[in-house]
Amino acid sequence: MCLGIPGQIVEITDADRLMAMADVSGVRREVSVACVAPAALSDLVGEWALIHVGFAMSIIDADEAEKTLEALRGLGEAQETLEAMAQGDAALAESPVTEVMS
Question: Is 91 helix (H, G, I), strand (E, B) or coil?
Answer without folding.
Answer: helix
